[in-house]
Please model this.
Amino acid sequence: MSTYGEKYESRLNATRDAIPRQGSDSNNNITNGGLAINRKRVHSDDGDEGDVKDEFDDYDKEEDDDTASKVAEEAVGNGEEKTAMVEEQQGLIRFEVVYNNSEDESMRRLTELKNIFQKQLPKMPKEYIARLVYDRNHSSLAIVKSNGHVVGGITFRLFEQRQFAEIVFCAVSSSEQVKGFTKDITLDKRLWMGYIKDYEGGTLMQAVLEKIRAKTRSQIVYPGLNNFKQNPGLTSIDPFSIPGIVESGWTPEMDEVSRSLARSKLNTWQINVVSEMLVHHSAWPFHKPVDPQEVPDYYVVVKEPMDLMTLESNVDENKYLTLEAFIDDTRKIFLNCKNYNGEGTRYWRCATSLEKFFDDKVREWKARTTS
Model:
């Protein structure tokens, strides 16, 4: 079994090999700064663990970003496409793979990414974003400007044995989303007024599609099929005879892979429920397995241990094919806690609170699926 360090060094190398970079040292770290992050955990009066606070959160980088944007405009020049590829070739941006290895530079990168995700994805719970960005099962690919600041990126979880990766967050800073767009609206208002939402606080912008059309085939409309009309008894045809299929690059293998990776509605619901439970205010005692060194007699009393980390792993691997199997394993968390801890303790209260939350989710699911 590989160690934690070996596992993540392998992940880092595998991802790094696929992404060309410029302006970084042999360790793929930037060399123009060493700002450390001080992560503080706030404790409540009764001793419960609280939220992690990052002192770096309030770091103001608008001035540096404005300077970088001006440099980008001059370096790319008028008439040239200001794409990420061009900016990377010009050395204006680079891509860095980063994960939580507890080093200051990594924590800085992750914190900048977390702030971008929380700002650009306002409907996503901030605690949920922070938990996944800092989670050691996840990695991130950061877009870093020449001034050393992160302007966007993705957070993903790599499933090496299954040979795919799940992207959980993807966002870019607002100031970087307008490349290729202009605030000068030249399209006749009579064509778009009343169809496009022009709301207070929003910026209406325009992009001309000639360059996009030159690089894509999305505007091509292929003729439809006449096979079934001409031969009503026909039940199947060669998919490659369908106009446009060959040009799209589709293969039967792609269809098989998509079917094998498709999640059922039940599994998707399970993933969402576990994610919500993990950020619940009463979930902190159940995040990971009980350490036998800290509680020596726990596994003498508890014969079927369960925790949210294990539950999340099981759900990710689609182990619960029925609602009952999922409920049974989840309830073990609450029953084990109540069997080991006395009634009225803070652990008992946490189990009761989280169990009520879970029961409400189950009732909602049953009502939705039986109606």
In short: The chain is about 45% helix and 10% strand. Strands lie at 39-43, 49-54, 93-98, 139-145, 150-159, 164-172.
